[in-house]
Amino acid sequence: MKENLYKYILGIADNSLILGQQLGALTGHGPSLETDIACTNISLDLFGQVRSYYQYAAKIKGEGATEDSIAFLRTERKYLNVLLVEQPDTDFAYTIGRQFLFDVYHFLFLNELQKSHDVTLSAIAKKSIKEVSYHQRFSSDWVKRLGDGTEESKLRMQNAISDLWTYTDELFHQTEADKAMVEEQIAVDVTTLKDKYYETVNAILTEATLEIPESKWFQKGGKKGIHTEYLGYILSDMQYMQRAYPNMEW
Amino acid sequence: MITAEQNIDKILYPILEQVSDPEIPVLSIMDMGVVRSAVIKNNIVNVEITPTYSGCPAMDVIGDDIQKALKEAGYHSEIELILAPAWTTDWITPKGRKALEDYGIAAPLEAEADKDVLLNGKRIVKCTNCSSQNTRLVSQFGSTACKAQFQCDDCQEPFDYFKCLK
Lengths: 250, 166
Fold this sequence. Notes:
The complex is a heterodimer of chains A (250) and B (166). Chain A is an all-alpha fold and 250 residues long.
């Protein structure tokens, strides 16, 4: 098995899986009908992308692996998503803040992944980027609307951005699998996305009349499987059916 | 404009035309442009379909429906889901656009006009009920991932707009 490629794919797909699960959990709980539909539609896009990645990963892994076994039957430390996407929906500003800080990265990332020498990854990237550009539009709009809104919405949006800021730097950390795959021109060198990322994020925050957080202390660990307490709860919800009824299928 | 060639055996056209889009029953899957190739080889039809959006839940049903329609016509078939080249709204045929409008879904505008509508609130999407362009965006997302929700300020009709995807 191509261990590095397998891990590299999980590193990409797990972000979308966990974020998709979080957004999906908002079904029927969004603050308004329009935002509810938006969150669940974005969730659906992310799950669709995840399925393409996991189907490919299952082929590489062999040994009877399927997209479902990869999604549902790993333990917490085997998930390689960044800490940002597992942060909770403290309020709607956190949902939007998390989405915005991820979308900007996701778009820049897919833009580069289109050039991957791996044809499957390149095809998934070309398909996904069209969807993600719309996600970014949605979350950026809301950051501006809440930031440049009422005193209360501004305060909440600022709190969300300031709290989530500490999870942004990890997006640009390279794992060993990343490095090996960059060598083979399969992976995106995420370190090169950092300047453009903060430039884009800062421009939107400024437009939203929000303060750009100054903290230079960042959390990390997700990419190595060391997660915040929130992931366990997400997984117990998400894996319930497969654990309770092993091998169930839709 | 992205033009990716379709490779479909002529004899299969009438069969595939009969398969409708499960989300928009008035529309044939051929009019949606999701069938990219259908070729008979050793008595088996190899069909390639591509999703409109990655998470489109209709793809499994479309695959099953194609197999069923081909079976009724006496063909065994194999369906493959492909991602590249990525689907674009340019592949919806003129007949398909007309069917969308008749069904109450505004057909996608060109990329620039689409941007004006979704980003800048320009009122140019035609109401599917009264044809007025005095319409506004209600929600960036609609009943499915490929649509946005609009409302006409003249006749008050709420309707879906099929977003431009390139």
